[in-house]
Amino acid sequence: MSDASFSPQTAIVTGSDSGIGRATAVALAAAGMDVGITWHSDEEGAGKTAEEVRGLGRKAVVRHLDTTDARGTASAVDRLAEELGGVDVFVNNSGTGDGTKFLELDYDTWMSTVNTNLNGAFVAMQAAAKHMVKAGRGGRIIAVTSVHEFQPRVGASAYDASKHGLGGLIKTMALELAEYGITANSVAPGEIATPMTGQEDQDPRQKDRPGIPVGRPGDAREVAAVIAFLASPESSYVNGASWAVDGGMLQMGPQAGSHITSNHWRES
Q: Is the pTM of this model over 0.70?
């Protein structure tokens, strides 16, 4: 597969009803792709994303997706690929967190988080990869993980485990899919001003975050810009990587460790 032969025309972005998913769908549309949009609980939000995509002159197809339903997840990806006429880029953005500490974490909550973030992601990315292999045009698969793919957080046992697992899955996919001209990478956001962090429609530059080197949360469009690069022909030699988009947060580990003076960090 020649690198020059990859010219993405279609993309699917899961969880694209708001936040990073919406910003990514719009960024890929601006790059010339028709976009499949999925939503779990916010159908109206998905409609707004579709309006933005169509406003850029690209086709938008919207479908409901519940990644805890393995059979339904594969079917939704297949239908989106059929309606779009293929899938050149697949962005696994769907995810959730529960905020439950390890000793209080019940099995059902554990499974709900892991099913959403990891098991459902496996099913969705495998379905997309099969379409890419069959088409023979190469492809890009990008998973949105988290800085907690690398570093844990109190009160996030299931979330941390699922994001660690998703990062590992992407690395194995990178090894196995490269022969088909398909690359697999992940993007690991830090604190981003999105509904998931309770900061929808807020300017992150007005928020003070002393624990982040750049001093503020990120904007969803800053994450989408990295995803758009990884989805492009120019990223042809990037494979099996995880790109932190966190304002330098991950670099604060040792620094934070030597400056914490109370046990407040033990609370989620």
A: yes
Name residue 90's amino acid.
F
Strand, helix or coil at 36?
strand
Please list the active-site residues.
159
Does domain 7-266 fall under CATH 3.40.50.720? My reply is yes
Q: Pairing relation of β-strands 89-92 and 34-39? A: unpaired
∠188-193-195 over CA atoms, to 5°? 100
Write down the domain spans for the chain. 7-266
pLDDT tens, residue by residue, 58-75: 999 999 999 999 899 999
What is the C-alpha separation between 146 and 159, in angstroms, rounded?
9
pLDDT of residue 104: 97
